[in-house]
């Protein structure tokens, strides 16, 4: 199963329509991506069940109504998102990302011990993590790409991730966010009594997820050995 | 522990709202123009997720109206309920690693059907906030340097999502019952 998932992962993009600039156009790859599969499955199963239960009219009505609700929901987010992104711009200009980065540097240096001290990758990793903690997705990605490029310089096997790269990606695929602004915005527009009351719980849960990501990346490396340096099949 | 988490929930936003501008002012940042500049992006961010929200809300709306969600709940509901996951939260587990916009759609859907202050509403909120779009992150970062063999990164990222879900259930149950 894992192999299937892994194969799938290569052609995957986020359904939000954002795509890395230099990745191949997913529309042209022959692989079916996970989100397409899930979406078609949900829609097709609904139609099949509606046919069986005789709720076709209700189904059509729900589809049409839900489409409109998607837009209302997004518009409902504008206020809180503007407030939050405005605040985060202030934080950025005040140098808070760099400040936070300095605080996290020793810990990250410890995690990425295989990267020689003073290597430019360290700086990019630190800034990426700091931007992620502040929830600055737009700022975190460029630092993340820079970190990957810097780590790639230390990669003896092009096309295969190094331990450091795998660890860095695992860290990024666990969310270490101080304030989940979008979720709070959704809760606010849904009329929650205290939209931010899930903040503490979210922080604790994401700390658990991050710890597991780091632990798994460190422990599982032996199950996924890098190609032997002796005779790599793609040696030039 | 619960008291500390509650205090964080209560204080984090106001402290950041006052603390960041104050700190920025002390660093001689033009706070107000900076705020306006950043806030301008709020609309774009919201508009950018409309396609994903529409796609997911339509699918979930159809799932509900057809009775398929009820059938699913009858089928795996007892087992999932045993794990602390209500049926309406099940789609979250499915789409979270695949799409951030879709995950937000599930949150919006559950907040409407179960209410934002319900157990299910809080659970999906915490689940969405404590996990990441693993497949997307890997595709972007690994893809940027031409890596196609992710090695331990994928299982580690998916295990992290799983841990985030499990921790969400435990924490939300403990804090909000």
In short:
Chain A has 236 residues and is an all-alpha fold. Chain A has helices spanning 2-10, 34-53, 56-93, 96-111, 120-133, 137-152, 163-172, 181-189, 199-219. Helices cover 65% and strands 0% of the residues of chain A.
Order of helices and strands of chain A: HHHHHHHHH
Q: Classify the beta-strand content of chain A into a percent band.
A: under 5%
> Which two chains have the most extensive interface, and how many residues on each?
A-B, 129 and 121 residues
Low-confidence stretches of chain B: none
Write the layout of secondary structure elements.
The complex is a heterodimer of chains A (236) and B (177).
Chain A lengths: L1 H9 L23 H20 L2 H38 L2 H16 L8 H14 L3 H16 L10 H10 L8 H9 L9 H21 L17
Chain B lengths: L1 H25 L4 H18 L1 H17 L1 H15 L7 H6 L4 H15 L4 H12 L3 H11 L8 H24 L1
Helix pairs in contact in B: 3-6, 6-7, 7-9
Structure report:
The complex is a heterodimer of chains A (236) and B (177). Chain A is mostly helical and 236 residues long. Chain A has 9 helices and no strands. Chain A has helices at 2-10, 34-53, 56-93, 96-111, 120-133, 137-152, 163-172, 181-189, 199-219. In chain A, helix 5 packs antiparallel against helix 6 (137-152). Chain A starts with a helix and ends in a 17-residue tail after the last helix. The model of chain A is unreliable at 7-28 (pLDDT under 50). Chain B is mainly α. In chain B, 81% of the residues lie in helices and 0% in strands. Chain B contains 9 helices and no strands. Chain B has helices spanning 2-26, 31-48, 50-66, 68-82, 90-95, 100-114, 119-130, 134-144, 153-176. In chain B, helix 3 packs across helix 6 and helix 7 packs antiparallel against helix 9 (153-176). The interface between A and B is large, with 129 and 121 residues.
Keywords:
heterodimer, A: 236 residues, mainly alpha, globular, B: 177 residues
């Amino acid at each position: 199963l894992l192999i299937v998932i892994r194969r799938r992962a290569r052609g995957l993009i986020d359904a939000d329509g954002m795509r890395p600039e230099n990745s191949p156009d997913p529309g042209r790859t022959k692989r079916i991506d996970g989100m397409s599969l899930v979406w078609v499955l949900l829609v097709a199963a609904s139609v099949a069940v509606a046919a069986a239960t005789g709720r076709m009219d209700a189904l059509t009505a729900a589809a049409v109504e839900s489409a409109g609700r998607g837009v209302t929901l997004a518009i409902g987010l504008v206020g809180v998102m503007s407030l939050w992104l405005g605040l985060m711009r202030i934080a950025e200009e005040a140098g808070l990302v760099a400040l936070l980065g300095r605080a996290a540097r020793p810990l990250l240096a410890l995690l990425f011990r295989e990267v020689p001290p003073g290597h430019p990758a360290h700086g990019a990793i630190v800034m990426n993590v700091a931007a992620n903690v502040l929830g600055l997705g737009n700022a975190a990605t460029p630092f993340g790409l820079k970190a990957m490029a810097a780590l790639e310089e230390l990669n003896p096997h092009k096309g295969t991730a190094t331990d450091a790269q795998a660890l860095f990606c695992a860290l990024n695929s666990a969310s270490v966010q101080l304030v989940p602004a979008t979720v709070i915005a959704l809760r606010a527009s849904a009329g929650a009594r205290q939209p931010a009351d899930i903040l503490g719980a979210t922080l604790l849960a994401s700390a658990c997820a991050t710890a597991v990501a780091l632990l798994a990346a460190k422990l599982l490396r032996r199950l996924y050995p890098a190609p032997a340096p002796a005779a790599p099949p793609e040696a030039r | 522990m619960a008291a500390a988490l509650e205090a964080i929930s209560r204080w984090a936003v106001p402290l950041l709202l006052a603390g960041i501008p104050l700190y920025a002012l002390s660093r001689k940042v033009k706070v107000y123009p900076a705020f306006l500049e950043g806030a301008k992006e709020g609309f774009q961010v919201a508009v950018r997720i409309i396609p994903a929200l529409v796609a997911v809300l339509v699918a979930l709306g159809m799932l509900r109206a057809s009775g398929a969600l009820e059938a699913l709940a009858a089928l795996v509901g007892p087992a999932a309920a045993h794990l602390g996951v209500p049926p309406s939260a099940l789609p979250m587990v499915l789409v979270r690693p695949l799409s951030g916009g879709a995950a937000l759609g599930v949150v919006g859907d559950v907040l409407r059907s179960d209410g934002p202050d319900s157990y299910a509403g809080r659970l999906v909120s915490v689940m969405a906030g404590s996990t990441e779009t693993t497949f997307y992150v890997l595709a972007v970062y690994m893809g940027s340097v031409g890596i196609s063999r992710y090695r331990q990164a994928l299982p580690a990222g998916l295990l992290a999502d799983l841990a985030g879900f499990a921790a969400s259930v435990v924490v939300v149950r403990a804090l909000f019952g």
